């Protein structure tokens, strides 16, 4: 019951802690993110923005916020699952995700590759704890957010109340 009462705050808190952790790892610990890592941050940035907008306008119980949470989490899950698949070498990485360069005889082509490619390959696990990469942990966090937010939506907005009772 406590989680239900404070779910708006929990979503905002998880989003803020997730971004703070990613930025701390990048700027304080010096862990360079890959392209997929950066894309996985977008839902959290969006949710933090929404959190403060809905907080300022005192719309903490508005269903629109929780629908946007669900949509944002689906976006985040897409990229986090894809990233985990790339790390485990189950899924192919995109061309923008590769840290390697193609063999070329042209210095202009090499320069273009260097400037357009990420330095960190999405296949490389830069950080892990207990065998879980940051992408794996993010997938778990997003999956839990998805499940609990769906339950919150169902319990608060999905049931029709009987007026005659």
Q: First CA to last CA: what distance?
A: 23 Å
CATH top-level class? Mainly Alpha
- The side-by-side strand order for the widest beta sheet comes to 1-2
Poorly predicted ranges? none
Secondary structure tally, helices: 6
Strand content: under 5%
Shape: elongated
Task: Round the Cα radius of gyration to an integer and report it.
Answer: 20 Å
Tell me the domain tally: 1
Q: Per CATH, which architecture?
A: Up-down Bundle
The largest β sheet comes out as: 2 strands, antiparallel
Give the number of DSSP strands: 2
Which structural class should the secondary elements be placed in?
Answer: mainly alpha
CATH topology: Bromodomain-like
Characterise this structure.
- There is one protein chain.
- It is built from 6 helices and 2 strands, in the order αααααββα.
- It has a single domain (2-156), classed as Up-down Bundle (Bromodomain-like), CATH 1.20.1550.
- It starts with a helix and ends in an 8-residue tail after the last helix.
- It is mostly helical.
- The protein has a two-stranded antiparallel sheet with strand order 1-2.
- β1 (128-129) and β2 (132-133) form a beta hairpin.
- It has helices at 2-5, 7-27, 35-56, 63-87, 107-116, 134-157; strands at residues 128-129, 132-133.
- The model has no long low-confidence stretch (mean pLDDT 88).
- 25% of the residues are buried.
């Amino acid at each position: 019951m406590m989680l239900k009462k404070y779910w708006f705050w929990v979503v905002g808190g998880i989003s803020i802690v997730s971004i703070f952790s990613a930025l701390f790892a990048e700027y304080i610990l010096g862990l360079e993110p890959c392209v997929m890592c950066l894309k996985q941050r977008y839902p959290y940035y969006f949710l933090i923005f929404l959190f403060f907008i809905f907080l300022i306008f005192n719309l903490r119980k508005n269903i629109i916020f929780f629908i946007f949470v669900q949509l944002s989490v689906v976006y985040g899950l897409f990229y986090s699952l894809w990233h985990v698949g790339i790390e485990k070498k189950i899924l192919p990485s995109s061309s923008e995700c590769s840290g390697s360069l193609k063999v070329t005889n042209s210095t202009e082509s090499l320069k273009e590759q260097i400037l357009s490619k990420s330095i960190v390959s999405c296949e490389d696990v830069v950080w892990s704890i207990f065998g879980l990469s940051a992408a794996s942990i993010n997938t778990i966090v997003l999956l839990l957010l998805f499940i609990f937010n769906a339950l919150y939506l169902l319990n608060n907005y999905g049931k029709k109340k009987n007026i005659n009772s």
